[in-house]
Design goal:
This protein is α/β, with parallel strands linked by helices and 231 residues long. The protein has a single domain, classed as TIM Barrel, CATH 3.20.20. Helix content is 38%, strand content 14%. It has 8 helices and 8 strands, in the order βαβαβαβαβαβαβαβα. It has an 8-stranded parallel β-barrel with strand order 1-2-3-4-5-6-7-8, surrounded by 6 helices. Helix 1 packs parallel to helix 2 and helix 3 packs parallel to helix 4. The radius of gyration is 17 Å and the shape is globular. The two termini are 14 Å apart. Keywords: Cytoplasm.
Length: 231
């Protein structure tokens, strides 16, 4: 399963046309990806039949959210249900650098039947292994964990990612690992040589010149999919 970041209807159209399996819908990618507007998500879902995962992130200051931000997130999840996305992408931590379990439990309650991906807020925790184990306790409610394994590029965390993928294989009713950050057409074979994995997430690597202002390229999607689906 190859998930591609999209920001507008053209991105969504090209992602489907060129063979992506799913899209993560965000705004403000220069800020790391924030919640898309109502108009954007509505038109993106109209432009593509790909399953859509909608980012729920009201600001880019940190992954710590106060009561005002939580109200906004609840309203945005209501919007996600209204427009018909497959799920939401969320991550939140406490000021002390732990997983915000109280907010996570609220997100799980608010999302209803929507799928939930917990995103790379995990990498911002003070102890990634301890935080990973906390998330495992919510494994029946979290569909996927989007992670680099704790490094800027996932390529530098292959041993940890391999271990986490093995955890998921041993517990198929828990969340699956979605490998992201630093995944590119030119290194996907290296990832696969170690991980032999099925689920990857890409952003600029799907595009011309690795530039979010440029179009998604068929050639890039083809190379990624060929390696992901290689026997």
């Amino acid at each position: 399963m190859l998930e591609v970041i999209v920001q507008n209807p053209r991105d969504a159209y090209l992602a489907e046309k060129y063979g992506a399996n799913r899209m993560e819908v965000v705004s403000a990618i220069s800020e790391g990806g924030l919640t898309p507007s109502y108009g954007a998500i509505k038109e993106i879902v109209r432009a593509s039949k790909l399953p859509a995962m909608m980012m729920i992130r009201p600001h880019s200051f940190s992954f710590v959210y106060d009561d005002a931000a939580r109200i906004v997130m609840e309203r945005d999840i209501e919007l996600a249900k209204e427009v018909g996305v497959q799920g939401i992408v969320y991550g939140g931590i406490t000021a002390d650098g732990d997983i915000d379990q109280a907010l996570l439990e609220k997100i799980i309650e608010w999302k209803g039947d929507l799928d939930l991906t917990f995103h790379r807020a995990l990498e911002a925790t003070k102890d990634i292994e301890a935080s990973y184990q906390v998330l495992r306790t919510y494994g029946k409610d979290i569909k996927q964990l989007l992670t680099s394994g704790g490094t800027a590029s996932a390529l530098d965390s292959l041993p940890r990612l391999k271990r986490w993928i093995q955890d998921s294989e041993a517990q198929p009713d828990s969340f699956q690992i979605l490998v992201g950050s630093g995944v590119k057409p030119e290194n996907i074979a290296t990832f696969q040589a170690t991980l032999n994995h099925t689920d990857y997430h890409v952003g600029s690597a799907a595009r011309e010149a690795n530039d979010f202002s440029k179009d998604i390229l068929k050639e890039n999607i083809d190379i990624l999919q060929q390696q992901i689906n290689k026997d």
